[in-house]
Here is the input.
Amino acid sequence: MAKIWSLLCFTLLLFTFNTQAARLAIVIDDVGYRVNEDNKLLQLPVAVSIAILPNSPYGRKIAEKAHQQGREILIHLPMAPLSQQPLEKNTLHPAMNREEIARIMQDAIQKVPHAVGMNNHMGSAMTSNLRSMEKVMQVLSQSRLYFLDSVTIGNTQVTKAAMGTPVPVLRRNVFLDNIQTEAETRHQLNRAITLARRQGSAVAIGHPHPTTMRALQHALARLPDDIELVTPGMLLNGDQTARNGIKPRETKPVPETQWEALKRVKKILSDNALFNTLNRYMQKLWGNQAGAQNPRRTV
Here is the structure.
C-alpha cells in the first residue's frame, strides 16, 4: 500500500511540473514610430520582447531603454510583400544580390543596438523565395542573431533556407491583433496559451496598437500558473545570451527556483480535496499498521 501511495504522489508531482512547462513568447512588432505607444509597451512585463524597424525615427532610443530594462530586442527587417503597398526604406527584394542584401542588413544591425534576433516585416514575396532567403541566412550567419519567421505567407522558405547555417530559427504561431479590438487580442492570446500547452511552447506576435496594449496589460497580469512568459531566445536550444557571448542580466519576472516550485507544488496539493482525503486515509492506515506491528506492552 505504501508503494501505491508513493506512486500516486509521484504521479501528482509529475503532472504538476508538466503543467508548468508551457512557455509563451510574445513579440511586439513595428516599434520605433510612436513614442507614446512605445513607452506604454515598455510598461509590459520585461519578458515581452520588441521588434524595432531599423529606419524608424525613435528606434534607437527605444532600443536603449529596452536594453536597460533587460528586455529582448529584435530587428524588424522590412521585406517585400506580394501585394502593392507602401514600403519602408531599404526593404529587401528577391531581385537583390547578396552584396546589396548584406549592406542593408548590416545597416539595420547598426541602427538597432543590442538586438539578439531578427524577424521579417511583411515579406510574403521575399520569405517565399528560397534563393533570396538563403542569401539572408548567409549574411545572418555572420552576426550571431537568431531569426523569427513572422510567417506572413504559408509557403515560407525560411526554415529550409537556414539549413546548413548556424542561424537558429523560430516560427510565429499566432497573430494577436489582425483585428484591432481588445476582445480579439484576448481571444488570440488564449489561442496562443492553448497552443503552448499542447506543443510545450508558442510564439505570438502583436503590434503597439492601443487596444493591444490594454488587452495585454490586463491579461498578462493574470496569466495561468501553468504558463511561463519567456523571450523568444529562451525557446531556442540553449541560452541565446550565452551563445552570443552576452552576460545575462537579471530580469523580472525571473523563473522560479526549484525550491519555490516545490513550495508551489505543496500549496497546490494541500489545496486539493482528493489529495487531503487520501492523505488522511493513508495516515490512519499507517497508524493502524504500526499499532499492529508494535502492540503496547502491559505490565
Notes: Residues 273-293 form the longest helix (21 residues). The two ends are 33 Å apart (CA to CA).
